[in-house]
Write a structure and sequence with these properties.
The protein is mainly beta. It has one domain. 7% of the residues lie in helices and 43% in strands. It has 1 helix and 6 strands; from the N terminus they run βββββαβ. It has a 6-stranded mixed beta sheet. A hairpin with a 5-residue loop joins β1 and β2. It starts with 12 loop residues before the first strand and ends in an 8-residue tail after the last strand. The model has no long low-confidence stretch (mean pLDDT 90).
Length: 103
Amino acid sequence: MSDEKDETPPSKVATFLKQLNGWRSYAALYRCEPPHEGEEYVVVSAVDAPYSGPETYIFPANADGTTKDMAEMPGSFRGALDHYTALARAGYERKVPGYEKAP
């Protein structure tokens, strides 16, 4: 048995770019490599919605964080406020520059 760690980079990465203002939720812009459903940029929004409870949705976006439309993309879910889980459900590992794992 080897003690070597698997250093293979994840095949799909969503990199946090910025928190977005003007939303009634915690919303952030991510860059997806490779693109998610053909979209290089997505907004992930987590909100405790009246009548339906917590939900975290992924929306297609432009590089500036403007959503292209409000169609929920794969990975979106109800029941929690969690960007990490939404991106993981879409098959992406979340990367936050400056918070990488130490070697």
